[in-house]
Amino acid sequence: MANIGVPGLIVILIVALIIFGPNKLPELGKAVGKTLREFKLSTKGVMDDDENTSDDAEKE
Fold it and tell me: What is the end-to-end Cα distance of the chain in Å, rounded?
């Protein structure tokens, strides 16, 4: 994955501010946060399922 860095992040935020305006940015940030949280929870669930499956296979 590419390392964006601080200057790249600032450019992205400025472009988002220009495109969406200051009133929509909090809503977009909230939506992105929820999406990332859900993605993290689902990937954790998949990893836990894989560990349980491999543990069950070792017991047999």
Answer: 38
Averages of pLDDT over each 10 residues, the chain, 60 residues? 82 89 88 92 80 62
Where are the domains positioned within the chain? 22-60
Q: What is the pLDDT of residue 37?
A: 93
CB 31 within 8 A of CB 39: no
